[in-house]
Amino acid sequence: MLEIKNLSFSYDTNEVLKNLNLSIADRSFHSLIGMSGAGKTLLLKLISGLQTLQSGTIEKTQQKISFVFQNAELFPWLTIEKNLQMCSSLRSVEIKDYLEKFRLDTVAKLYPCELSGGTLKKVALLRAFLVQSDLILMDEPFAYLDMAQKEEIYSFTKELWVQNKPTIIFVSHDLDEAIFLSTQISYLSRRHKTIVESYDIKNQSGFSFNESKTTPGHISTYAEIYGKLKEELI
Amino acid sequence: MKNFLKSFIVILLLSFGWHILANSHVIDAEFFPSPFHVLNNLIQLITQGAFLKDIEASFLRLLISALITIPLSLILALLCVQIKIFDILFRPIVAFTYPLPKVAIIPLLMLIFGIGDKTKIAVISLGMFYLLFINLYTSMNRLKSSTLNDVATIFKISSGDYLFHFLIKGVFVDFLVGLKLALGYALTLIVVSEFSMSKNGIGNFIWKSWDQFKVLDMYSGVLFLCLAGFVIYFILDVFINRTTKYFNR
Q1: pLDDT in tens, B98-127
Q2: Cβ–Cβ of B154/A78 closer than 8 Å?
Q3: Nearest CB neighbour to B166, from listed A73, A75, A88
Q4: For B157, which of A67, A71, A86 is closest by C-beta distance?
Q5: Domains of chain B, start order
Q6: DSSP assignment, residue B157?
Q7: pLDDT digit string (tens) for B226-245?
Q8: How far B159 CA lies from chain A's nearest CA (Å)?
Q9: Domain spanning A71-165: which superfamily?
């Protein structure tokens, strides 16, 4: 369980988060949706400890945390194998097994600059799951990918999540992907500087991403959250 | 290779211009001899062997200085970047002493090390150290404030991996750029230090030639330094260009 209570945070006089409360169940795939500047990335950094708390508390039962950044953020001067090895402390043989299992064995000896954007993001995802963490924070990890790459990486993410079942907190601007991947979505309001609504998402298993978008559950959730986003624009 | 050829052609064209001016007596060939005559003389000096000893002496000093300053600047940069108290104590000393022309403290170094190779090596090492240290320190700090440092923190990379695979490897290209600048400056310091307190070396050869009014020899020494600098820059440039793509994010 991850429990955030009365969390507030300001950059000098600019208050970004105010009395934020949020409870996230273990093994859930929890998405955070909100306008740019609502403080989604900041919230992830506060949970991870990359940013120091100013007020409020974050209690978590999870011990091992990993992070998937917006850009893959692999060490460019190391091969993919070395990147994974250094972050996971696994042996070379084990890394090779994982890479083979997730169809990435051909890139083991390559450098990040030699990979496509989609493959880089896959490696970054694999890195987060390899460390056997029980909490994975994802900050818009699928930004800048084309539709075909997104579809592939969505199923890759689901595959990894189903196998390991860590708690995932996922930040996204793409409502469709959030609804498709998540078990729960929270709406972080830029105006109110806190979570104003949470939605339980029905399991979409068995559907592809495109099929899922046409289901009634997806359409109604999309409309509801989109309504919130539009309200903030007015 | 294309860039090397272009640079070579530019130098060749300038030399031809100079050659024409010297041969047509527009400029005094006694004081400004044709570069081709200088090159010819340099080849003779090298093949005769005497100048080789001077080259060997100078480059040995350069090598020893590099072997002292590279690990020293790396260790001190790492200490300053990783240990705050070290940074607080050492950085002001560097900031205070860096602007001092290294040639100005030759007399002080002579007092400490005497009139021998040690003083020359100390001057060259000091000149190289600041450029290498400042470059490494700045690059490491930049790396530490990047998102990649967050990656290292989140994934709890071991201290050994953090130092070697993150900090040291991560600034490798910047180190090469710093080394390029440091070696260029070192060539200047070698010559200056050998002018006044040496019995051998390229600087001594240039000064001796001037003293004995052997203008062609003096120019040959200068030309050799230009060629040495050019080759060092070219080799390092090739290396930097080949490795840069592995460091771009």
Answers
A1: 998 888 888 898 899 988 889 999 999 999
A2: no
A3: A75
A4: A86
A5: 49-244 (1.10.3720.10)
A6: -
A7: 999 989 998 999 889 988 88
A8: 11
A9: P-loop containing nucleotide triphosphate hydrolases (3.40.50.300)
